[in-house]
Design a protein that fits this description.
Length: 153
């Protein structure tokens, strides 16, 4: 019997609705563990997760049977409910529509993991808007400014 063998690494980036800085350092680790659990329960592998108060980055080792858009929809929906149930905030929390997804080779995976793990340092030098637009350009993804995340200037 033959098997399916694959190695698929996807970095996913998504933001808080309105780009508000709502992910607090007090509970962000609990949120990241919860999101990692969702990924694991969907039989995928979380390689790195980190972010800022207004957005997060994930690097996921994906199996070919998984549909990325379904996985991201489940992560956003369930983590949103988790934040509400835990009452981390006094007001409603939600994720912005859309996300970025960028594929990497195995040889790049350690650099991407380090990049994600160093988000807080990275954003002392570069805004999320600059970072996201650079990712789109580096991956040669055509975009229109008006369809990107809502940016707080």
């Amino acid at each position: 019997m033959s098997g399916t063998f694959s190695q698929i690494y996807i970095q996913v980036v998504f933001a808080v609705k309105g780009r508000q800085s709502l992910i607090h350092s007090v509970w962000e680790e609990e949120l990241y563990k919860y999101i990692s659990g969702i990924v694991k329960n969907k039989e995928q592998k979380m390689l790195a997760i980190n972010g800022m108060p207004d957005h997060i980055h994930l690097l996921i080792g994906m199996r070919p049977i998984c549909c990325l858009s379904d996985l991201v929809r489940e992560i956003k929906k369930s983590s949103n409910e988790f934040i509400q149930q835990k009452k981390f905030l006094k007001h409603k929390f939600s994720w912005q529509e859309g996300y970025g997804a960028f594929s990497y080779s195995h040889s790049d995976s350690n650099n991407v993991i380090q990049y994600i793990n160093n988000q807080k340092e990275h954003h002392k030098k570069q805004s999320f808007k600059e970072e996201y637009k650079l990712l789109l350009k580096d991956f040669q993804i055509a975009f229109k400014e008006e369809y990107l995340f809502e940016w707080l200037e």
